[in-house]
Amino acid sequence: MKQCKITVFVEQLSTRIKRVRGRSLNITTTIFLCLSLAFFIMILGMFVNNRARKFLSSDEIYFPQLSAFYPKSPRLSYSYFLCNSSSDLSLHPFQLSNGSRGLRDWTAPNQPSHLMSDKELIGKLPLGPLWEKFFKGHAGLYSIYLHTSPEFTEEPPESSVFYKRMIPSEQVEWGQATMVDAERHLLANALLDFSNERFVLLSETCIPLFNFTTIYNYLINSNHSFVGSIDDPRKMGRGRYNKHMWPMISLLDWRKGNQWFEVHWKLAIEIVSDVTYYPIFENHCKPPCYMDEHYLATLVTKIQPSMNSNRSITWVDWSRGGSHPTKFGRKDVSEAFLNRVRQGFNCTYNGITTTVCFLFARKFQPRTLEPLLRIAPVLLGFNP
């Protein structure tokens, strides 16, 4: 986008030079113009270099001119991080001018690569065959980024949608800041592709509730991002607030939500480039405060509340209580059960009330694969 703006400016400058030449100015004037132009180009170069270093923190990258150069597309994330990679265009990593973490710190090579055996892949992506069917026939409208444990060393088959989609990753610990680091790492890698427009974070236990086309249209046409963000007055909500976060983050700012987000590219850039609130959470949100439940929910409320729907599109069942949601097994999977999740709620979408509130669901154990594949052709519209 920076290149587009600069190109337009230089073309206008060339037109002005041609007009001056058409007036047959004398040698002195011509030399003065050339020297002035050289000085101007030098200043322009310094300015461009300075602006490039501030790329991630600049609001100018949000302007809709980008849509004139790159096609729109949705995407998904974590254990499955799905984006649209219809373009080979990439950015060079930049370092923020204040020395804080920039895109370079969160990204890996442009060709995400990791080594993983088929056996290990299936072991960690037990529902992979369902997702293979989900994406079949839609190449160019999505891309996938996988954050895996560092010990995996082999690639999935070349025919798989997960082939070469794993980014070099560091160990992630439950309840620690490394969980948020992994999310930002995924977003940063995906943002290197300008064609990626929507970003969804999912886990290996997630399933789609609709076919690809339905989910694609739902996300690409949404005016909002989908980040759960509520003001929870209970001990597990406001009770986790640390007064040392004040004044940058007050108790009134404090929000809670689950980590399975869906965000527009504007918000994705804000998340990756945040050097104001992230350090505060890193220093003061320690168990029983969990960054993955509070950081994004609070950040979105602070910086872009109008862009968020304040709800998640990934359904999960907390009705049984405890620290972890309900796990679903083979006997739980049925058309009736999935239809209740697909159509059994009311929410708002672009200002209109709808019963389609969730596009994904979790936590589904490996043994659910067979019944899911059996139901998918009829319920989800997948090819058998």
TrEMBL record:
Transmembrane segments: 25-48
Localization terms from the record: Membrane
Classification via InterPro entries: BC10-like, Glyco_trans_14
Membrane topology, as annotated: Single-pass type II membrane protein
Chief localization: membrane
Iron as UniProt keyword: no
Name the record gives this protein: Core-2/I-branching beta-1,6-N-acetylglucosaminyltransferase family protein
UniProt keyword annotation of NADP present: no
GO MF annotations, alphabetized: glycosyltransferase activity
Coiled coil feature spans: none
Annotated keywords: Glycoprotein, Glycosyltransferase, Membrane, Transferase, Transmembrane, Transmembrane helix
GO CC, any one term: membrane
